[in-house]
Amino acid sequence: MKAITIAATLLCISPMLVSTTVLAEDSDKKNANQSSMAEYSRKIAVDETVVTEHKTKANGQNFSYTATVGTQPVWNENGDAVATLSYTYYQRDNVRDTAKRPLLISFNGGPGSASVWMDIGYTGPRAINVDDEGYPLQPYGVKANPYSILDIADIVYVNPVNTGYSRVLPNKDGEMPSKDEQQDMFFGVNADIKYLAEWLNTFVSRHERWRSPKYLIGESYGTTRVSGLALELQNRQWMYLNGVVLVSPTDIGIERKGPVKSANRLPYFAAAAWYHKALSADLQNADLTEFLPEVEAFTINEYIPALAMGGFISPDHKQKIAEKVAHFSGLSVDAVLKSNLDVSTRFFWKELLRERGQTIGRLDSRYLGIDKQDVGDSPDYNAELTSWLHSFTPAINAYMREELNYKTDIKYYMLGNVHPWDRTNNKTGENLRLAMAQNPYLNVMVQTGYYDGATNYFDAKYSMWQLDPSSKMKDRLSFKGYRSGHMMYLRSEDLKQSNQDLREFIQATMPAEDVSAKY
């Protein structure tokens, strides 16, 4: 307003003066606007921390803890900051010796998913406000997590580039890297592992945690990430781990194609059908874990060989297999036959409860959806994901600002843009095996939900079986199943049990002082 008033006054004095003054004024306004834009531009701080103090009760213990929300740069080989990663770090207070205090490093999946899910869903000191089965409740927000493993381990939740508040940074000239350059640096199986290992080295050094026993936990695509990181940390950062936890794992580079890929779905189909009471009485009256071994045995011994025969299977044999698949899956024999014994997951989610007018969820098949039409071969939407975003999005935004005092205009990316993702040369499962072979201290635990249709529990078992074909390390591999889905911790009973399993895994894999790392 002031500049406009001055210009209007000068207009009455001299045309030449007006011209000169207006040009100068325009220049001043432009500089002022640029300064204002720089001051108020929507960008994340490259390197900062916000620290808050809290109290909680977990695993029956009352204690105080410190929460640090911050950003830490990703450096390139020239020492320039090319991105900044946001993280949340919880430390129990009054710990005398951090050399004996485990550090759990937590990643979610996607790729492109923020760390929100396991932070306020699973292991952190605050838990999402949902009902006992994981469905949204209002008012949105978080509550105390009485099962958090913060009683025995400190935890850092890391957001890879373009998730949470993490962002790619412009160069010194203010120019953003091209899409291809960003993919080379961040958005691929091996690029992701490389820069995160470097970032973790800096984090561990800054927080003086080199002597602490260290654990990686990843969910979904995060299992690919942590499997690769196990070896990358050992070989490039000289950082050795005590454990890796794979929550709802992907294939981690272990191939499951053809008949194996198709047949491995059946135990999950059986579990989901059992939950929705869609099986015959003989199976429905049995407990879930009582009859699943029968389905698994049929899958390995009969179903895979039948699918391997393809179009040359005899009609009688095909009929027999179809009847058994239908019996275990809750589908009709006709549907199985018309699928040539190879029933897709998308068809299953649509078909199982078609007569009831409902679809079932992908990541957690306990969740129900309704479609515009009951015809078709796949659901209109993923019922479980919309439910989770419904409750988690307001909760994490409020939690960051109101409890952890981290206030920014940067959007919290629940699911960020990281595509196209380079999936070539994925050897993460083999890398995990090699890391275990090189490090006698390193143990692996798999946690998965029976009702997960995206990364199904039998695929997880299969990958675990294939991880070490020599069987020389199978005593360092363990499997835990839960009566829920991809995020098994959203069900109250499984939140308690999965945290306890994790707590026991960490405690069991911390060797006594006189136990050497040797074969």
List keywords for this structure.
globular, 519 residues, ten-stranded mixed sheet, alpha/beta
Approximate helicity band: 40-55%
Q: What does the radius of gyration come to?
A: 27 Å
Strand content: 15-25%
Q: Residue ranges: pLDDT <50 for 5 or more in a row?
A: 1-25
Helix-strand makeup class? alpha/beta
Mean of residue pLDDT values: 92
By DSSP (H or I, 4+ residues per run), the number of helices equals 17
Number of β-strand runs: 14
The description of the largest β-sheet is: 10 strands, mixed
What would you call the shape? Answer: globular
Q: What oligomeric state do the depicted chains represent? A: single chain
State the end-to-end CA separation: 79 Å
Question: What does this protein structure show overall?
Answer:
This protein is of the alpha/beta class and 519 residues long. The strands form 3 sheets. Strands 1, 2, 3, 4, 7, 8, 9, 10, 13 and 14 form a 10-stranded mixed beta sheet that branches. The chain is built from 17 helices and 14 strands. It has helices spanning 2-10, 15-40, 116-123, 179-185, 189-206, 221-236, 258-263, 266-275, 281-284, 288-308, 315-329, 333-338, 345-351, 383-403, 428-438, 457-467, 492-508, and strands at residues 48-58, 61-75, 81-92, 103-107, 126-128, 142-144, 154-158, 167-168, 214-219, 243-247, 359-360, 368-369, 443-449, 477-482. Helix 6 (221-236) packs across helix 15 and helix 10 packs antiparallel against helix 11. Helix content is 41%, strand content 16%.
